[in-house]
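Q: Could you predict the 3D structure of Sugars ABC transporter substrate-binding protein?
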Amino acid sequence: MLRLQHFKGRNVLAERGHIFSKSLPQRDRASIILTYTRKRIAHEGITTHGMKGAGVRLKLVKRLVAVCCAGIMAASAAACGASQDTRTEITVWSWEPSMKSVIAGFEKENPDIHVIWKNTSGYDKLNNAIQDGYGTPDVVQLEYYALRQYAVSGQLVDITDRADSYQDFFTPGTWSSVQLNDRIYGLPMDSGPMAFFYNEDVFEQAGVDASGIRTWDDYYEAAKKLKAIGVYITADSGDASFYDAMIWLAGGRPFSASNDGKNVSINLTDDSGTRKFTEFWQKMIDEGLVNTSLSTWSDGWKEAVGNGTIASLFSGAWMPSLLMSDLPGAAGLWRVAQMPTPDGKATTSENGGSALAVLQRSRKPEASYRFIEYACHEADGIKARVDGGAFPADNDTLSDAEFLGKTTVTDDRGIEVPYFGGQEYNRVLSQAAENVSTGYQYLPFEVYARSDFRSTVGKAYKWATLLRREQDRLNIIAAGGETDASDIGDALKNTDSSDRLKLKGGIALWQRDLKEYGANQGFTIQ
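A: Sure. Here are the predicted structure tokens for Sugars ABC transporter substrate-binding protein:
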């Protein structure tokens, strides 16, 4: 029998493995079913004459005709059923886990709209859909560094007329991140002011009061004491988002663009903030104070952070929920403080954070805007995301007494855990949000810039890792020990001279690539 069944997210008509899409017009479905019936008749060896067993033939014909009629009736019923759902349907692409509860609240308040959520991350799929001209969502979550790129290329709906009065609702840094040429192309969804997360227990073992670290010099001295007990103060294997954020914190402004985003200045090699952080971080790496071999979020990284051999992180304010989910065993050991800075003055930068935007290709811009308005501007939508672990971008939540006084992090079971030992961690993070300096600009092709970072500046990290492993091998031999890491020497010898870089050389390569890419994409590069 033909019947309706669920197949790859669709209701379909099926009979013995033959699939007919419900999305076809009713007339086309009926035609397909009739054609299918004729083929089945032929397959059964049925003709109108010249065969024995006319009674059998008649029964077979009747059975297949009945199948055909039933299929047509099912198709008709399905079409009628579908037509009864008059809700406007929009598709949202987002990686935020709380989106499910946001959608539930939105649909309850907006029963005329149905939201389909696709859990996606990264930008390859979105770029491919835009290039192909079909399959794009109505609403998309974009990190702040990526939003400008899509706005410049005309992919986002200008929502200035509807959101122009929201400036005081959001923090200055997030609000400036959704604008291009004084026009607004998204609503801030969350934020990621940088903060200093540290394992208090490990620092105490090294004789360091981490809460007193104010300057980069303080941080450097603490790193040396941690190294003495066999611990790295942090790990960094070449993360573009981290490096960008640290340049920003150091006062760097290596990128700038005209209001329309078409004229771009790139000056990494001469920018004072870039040079300041690069020199400091190179010293940390050269002295073996930073683990350059473990990539953030890798299994090895999680293990090292969990067992205390990596003692701290510079990260965005979204980190608490991730520490809770990935490293539940470290609950109670960690604390949060403001970022150390070159001169000890209270300032920080953003690392992460995202907005919701409506794509220009959407055929339902009104319903789509209503959704981002609910998720980013209405209290219920914001609360659903904050309860799910997001760090807010609106001033009301950041100053809310209940939010500021929170001392627990919700785990995967819904249990409140005092992950930071009873510390009111949101109070620290909210202060960090106030300390974010303004004026830093992302490139209008920042998505490419970050992917290119690993193949340019990343070479310096790889070279540093090889040098460190060789030094460790030599130290073991000098101490009378044995090691099976003899391949390290060969790896050093076989490394091409162009890959034997310090961070400064990697930054120069990165700048060269960015200028070349920007010019090829039609930007005027200075």
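Q: Anything worth pointing out?
A: The radius of gyration is 29 Å.
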